[in-house]
């Protein structure tokens, strides 16, 4: 009923105009009776056609004109023809209007009547005017809650933004506009935009893709026009388009015309906004996601990267976050300085999460009252990260690994340094940037690295030289993950594949990238320890072994005969259990056969001995491990000592 009333009201202007023209024409031509009625009907039909831009408009207008001329000429013999012609014109007009009304009703989004859709269609040439009436964004125009004083540190970013914004506001006639903020998620791009508005004392108007996106065809571009129309009505403002990559995707990668239409609309509206005192700011996590036409000069004249918080900013964020959650001075000052230093590269959002996480830990009874220590804060960060990497279950302790006593002592000292890094740094100590584990195959180098991570409670990531060679982006991805999981041990097994002599290597660029990450040429990253494992240290590039890279070396050897004998007695008895008896002669035979072998080979041989004994037990019920079992196991391993 409502739509019918609105439709009738919408038809009044063309009806009145048509009637007026028809009666005026009839009076001028002295038409009477049926001729006057026909003339009025014809004029009304023409008015409706012109008002609604109905398809077949030319045909209807021609028919109505012919009818009017016939009637006006007064050919009485054509009265019937005139009436039929006028009736046909009226019928076609009503039919076309009704079909258009049905289409509008079917395509109108919920909450919008066909009348509003029709109004939008008739005002297509004035798109911004139509859009601003259809979509209200007044609630998105706010007064900024803070200025740059609320952001500690980041002086370069603040100065750059302020200078650019003042230039846009002071000299709009230069038509330079558009600030593109880029940086990793959580670094505060939206906060910087609002703080800029607060610093300038002008309104802050922001939209995101979620605010504008619609499931209806052509609805999203119309909302974009409405947003820019809203911005244009403001005398001065900071206009932020958050999640810009949702609006302007690379058109080379798109397959849907709606995405291209949205991109084109955005580019057009951005150009229209130039020359005004509206500071246009867009935020994206990665410029590479944007269409190249959007990031050129003339669209965005100023590119500003928002990096992770610098040291003063990290200290302020941690102090504010922990203080809000646990009270002022809840974080030990020396711990605050150390944490802020080693958490370089973490986003502002992650640092802000430390306070609430500490509050949860205190509620759970994990620590009591008093200042929060360094170790407790590190535990909170590990909870926030939610992962410790790839450390498997059942990792051996350092004392369980068979290795020379001197090497074991070196490994234990390194473990103590990792566990007490805060105290060590207070006393002037430092962790090595990289460690080399080298020695014959199967001597426990990889196990030692995992034991080191488990004992020190560091995250653990592992790769091999072959995996790094398989993808040019593998190292960058892995090192980025290690930085995200700090503190983290990053193990490169078979490192000679990627760290070999560059004079003879075909992968020198990859070697250079790895070395740059280790020695901090791309920026020193604390709490990432790279451990390279190799069986052939002589094959490594000499630059790999210098100070500042793999500066600490730990050698792994095959066990001595005495150590191996003790290992065999203990582990063979453990594997045999209560089922099998073991003679002394059998043990001595096994020790002699495995002399000079690694622990990995020894473990395999012991398992094969048990397998042989189990097979005989199934066949004949035997419960004794014999020298025949030993010889069969050793022959399978191609050991020739027996």
UniProtKB/TrEMBL annotation:
<keyword id="KW-0472">Membrane</keyword>
<dbReference type="GO" id="GO:0045037">
    <property type="term" value="P:protein import into chloroplast stroma"/>
</dbReference>
<feature type="region of interest" description="Disordered">
    <location>
        <begin position="104"/>
        <end position="126"/>
    </location>
</feature>
<dbReference type="GO" id="GO:0005524">
    <property type="term" value="F:ATP binding"/>
</dbReference>
<keyword id="KW-1133">Transmembrane helix</keyword>
<dbReference type="InterPro" id="IPR003959">
    <property type="entry name" value="ATPase_AAA_core"/>
</dbReference>
<dbReference type="GO" id="GO:0006508">
    <property type="term" value="P:proteolysis"/>
</dbReference>
<keyword id="KW-0812">Transmembrane</keyword>
<keyword id="KW-0067">ATP-binding</keyword>
<feature type="domain" description="AAA+ ATPase">
    <location>
        <begin position="175"/>
        <end position="310"/>
    </location>
</feature>
<feature type="transmembrane region" description="Helical">
    <location>
        <begin position="66"/>
        <end position="92"/>
    </location>
</feature>
<feature type="transmembrane region" description="Helical">
    <location>
        <begin position="12"/>
        <end position="30"/>
    </location>
</feature>
<feature type="compositionally biased region" description="Low complexity">
    <location>
        <begin position="107"/>
        <end position="121"/>
    </location>
</feature>
<dbReference type="InterPro" id="IPR003593">
    <property type="entry name" value="AAA+_ATPase"/>
</dbReference>
<feature type="domain" description="AAA+ ATPase">
    <location>
        <begin position="431"/>
        <end position="560"/>
    </location>
</feature>
<comment type="similarity">
    <text>Belongs to the AAA ATPase family.</text>
</comment>
<keyword id="KW-0547">Nucleotide-binding</keyword>
<dbReference type="InterPro" id="IPR027417">
    <property type="entry name" value="P-loop_NTPase"/>
</dbReference>
<feature type="transmembrane region" description="Helical">
    <location>
        <begin position="36"/>
        <end position="54"/>
    </location>
</feature>
<dbReference type="InterPro" id="IPR003960">
    <property type="entry name" value="ATPase_AAA_CS"/>
</dbReference>
<dbReference type="Pfam" id="PF00004">
    <property type="entry name" value="AAA"/>
</dbReference>
<dbReference type="GO" id="GO:0004176">
    <property type="term" value="F:ATP-dependent peptidase activity"/>
</dbReference>
<protein>
    <submittedName>
        <fullName>Transitional endoplasmic reticulum ATPase</fullName>
    </submittedName>
</protein>
<dbReference type="GO" id="GO:0016887">
    <property type="term" value="F:ATP hydrolysis activity"/>
</dbReference>
């Amino acid at each position: 009923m409502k739509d019918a009333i609105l439709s009738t009201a919408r038809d009044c202007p063309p009806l009145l105009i048509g009637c007026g023209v028809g009666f005026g024409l009839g009076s001028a031509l002295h038409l009477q009776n049926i001729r006057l009625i026909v003339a009025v009907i014809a004029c009304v039909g023409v008015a409706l056609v012109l008002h609604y831009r109905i398809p077949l408009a030319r045909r209807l207008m021609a028919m109505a004109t012919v009818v009017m001329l016939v009637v006006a000429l007064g050919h009485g013999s054509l009265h019937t023809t005139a009436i039929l012609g006028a009736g046909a014109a009226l019928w076609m007009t009503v039919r076309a209007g009704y079909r258009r009304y049905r289409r509008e009703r079917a395509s109108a989004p919920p909450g919008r009547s066909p009348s509003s859709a029709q109004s939008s269609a008739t005002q297509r040439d004035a798109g911004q005017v139509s859009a601003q009436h259809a979509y209200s964004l007044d609630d998105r125009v706010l007064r900024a809650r803070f200025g740059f004083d609320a952001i500690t540190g980041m002086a370069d970013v603040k100065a750059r933004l302020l200078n650019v914004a003042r230039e846009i506001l002071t000299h709009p006639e230069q038509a330079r506009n558009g600030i593109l903020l880029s940086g990793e998620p959580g670094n505060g791009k939206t906060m910087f935009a609002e703080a800029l508005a607060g610093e300038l004392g002008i309104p802050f108007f922001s939209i995101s893709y979620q605010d504008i996106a619609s499931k209806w065809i052509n609805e999203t571009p119309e909302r974009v026009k409405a947003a820019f129309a809203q911005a244009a009505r403001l005398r001065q403002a900071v206009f932020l388009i958050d999640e810009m990559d949702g609006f302007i995707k690379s058109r080379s990668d798109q397959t849907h015309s709606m995405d291209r239409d949205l991109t084109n609309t955005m580019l057009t509206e951005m150009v229209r906004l130039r020359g005004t005192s509206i500071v246009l700011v867009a935020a994206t996590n990665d410029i590479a996601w944007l269409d190249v036409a959007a990031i050129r000069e003339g669209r965005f004249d100023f590119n500003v990267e928002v990096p992770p918080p610098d040291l003063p900013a990290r200290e302020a964020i941690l102090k504010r976050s922990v203080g809000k959650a646990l009270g002022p001075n809840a974080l030990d000052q020396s711990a605050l300085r150390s944490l802020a230093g080693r958490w370089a590269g973490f986003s502002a959002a992650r640092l802000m999460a430390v306070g609430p996480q500490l509050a949860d830990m205190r509620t759970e009874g994990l620590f009591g009252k008093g200042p929060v220590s360094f170790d407790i804060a590190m535990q909170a960060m590990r909870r926030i990260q939610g992962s410790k990497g790839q450390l498997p279950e059942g990792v051996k302790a350092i004392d369980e690994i068979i290795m020379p006593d001197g090497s074991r002592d070196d490994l234990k000292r390194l473990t103590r340094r990792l566990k007490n890094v805060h105290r060590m740094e207070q006393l002037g100590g430092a962790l090595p940037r990289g460690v080399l584990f080298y020695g014959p195959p199967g001597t426990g180098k990889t196990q030692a690295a995992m034991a080191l991570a488990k004992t020190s409670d560091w995250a653990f990531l592992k790769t091999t030289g072959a995996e790094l060679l398989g993808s040019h982006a593998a190292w960058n991805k892995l090192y980025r993950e290690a930085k995200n999981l700090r503190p983290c041990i990053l193990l490169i097994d078979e490192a000679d594949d990627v760290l070999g002599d560059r004079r003879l290597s075909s992968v020198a660029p990859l070697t250079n990238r790895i070395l740059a990450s280790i020695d901090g040429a791309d920026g020193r990253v604390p709490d990432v320890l790279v451990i390279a494992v190799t069986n052939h240290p002589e094959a490594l590039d000499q630059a790999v072994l210098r100070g500042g890279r793999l500066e600490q070396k730990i050698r792994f050897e095959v066990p001595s005969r005495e150590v191996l004998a003790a290992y065999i007695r203990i582990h063979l008895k453990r594997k045999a259990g209560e089922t099998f008896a073991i003679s002394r002669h059998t043990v001595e035979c096994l020790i002699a056969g495995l002399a000079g072998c690694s622990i990995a080979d020894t473990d395999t041989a012991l398992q094969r001995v048990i397998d042989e004994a189990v097979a005989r037990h199934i066949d004949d019920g035997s419960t004794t491990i014999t020298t025949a079992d030993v010889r069969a196991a050793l022959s399978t391993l191609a050991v020739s000592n027996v």
